[in-house]
Amino acid sequence: MTQVAEVVTAEMASELTASREEAARALWAEHYPRLAGWCASLVGDIDVAHDIAADSFERLLARWTKVEDPRAYLYVIATNRVRDHWRHQRRDRELTDRLRPSKEDSSTPAVDPWLRDLVMRLPERLRRPVLLHYYADLPVADVARALHRPVGTIKRALSEGRAQLLSDIEEQK
Fold first, then answer.
1. pLDDT tens readout for residues 22-55
2. For the chain, how many structural domains are there in total?
């Protein structure tokens, strides 16, 4: 009797999976173009809009059985992702404005090319925090926000970067 129940359960699960996949395909065909176009009108970049729309569908499919109104859920997720995109753009713009030297500030000391070359040889995961913290004079918290990493990770990268630079300097002596 248990073998029959297992076969029936497996058949039902297969049919249920097939019907869910069919429903997901139909939802994609019906809503994806409109959702991607709506996102493009908000973000102004068709590639970013397609990424947001695809991500919205991915998140919907992860919660497929719990969502009552898939179309509404898609647009809520897409709206949140568009807001995230706007926040990232604003943060990047603010960071760029802070990094751009002002015209009045001509007192910036020249950077020794030898030291710059050593910094540029650092691995990227160390180089970016070192450049932003020491060259752009950003606080660690701002560097963490700009690189979308935790503060502790940035502190560790700065420590490793300093150690690597010290080692490189001692080797060249």
1. 888 888 898 899 999 989 888 888 999 999 999 9
2. 2
